Amino acid sequence: MKLQSETAVRHVATSYAYDDTEHNELTLRGGGEEVAAALTRELQQRLAKAGVEVDEARLTHLAYAPEIAQAMLRRQQAEAVIAARQKIVIGAVSMVEMALSELSTKKVVVLDEERKAAMVSNLLVVLCGESEAHPVINTGTLYN
User: In angstroms, what is the C-alpha Rg of the chain?
Assistant: First the structure.
């Protein structure tokens, strides 16, 4: 029974991803009831020959080798950085749109397409950059 139980747990554990990487994916960590039902079925199938009836089975502890856990942690950190960057870019684009709209509405300055592109580029660099912005005073023109 011990060998069949361990085999059933290993089979179910290898049938599901540990964590949700593609979103809406059934996983060991997030698929509680479904994974428990699969484990119960697997155990019942393997232990029925010995006359054992399995009412319920659940995974209560998930552990991986340290090198796998470290790789998973790096992936989670990378996903957090990407999510933060996406929010920063969305906010920066919205601020650039607002700046262009306000400049146009209030007729502060009239920008041709090339100057708008330069302004958008500069604002996105400043708003999305990791380090503090350092102003540059342009004493020339874009057209020389």
Answer: 28
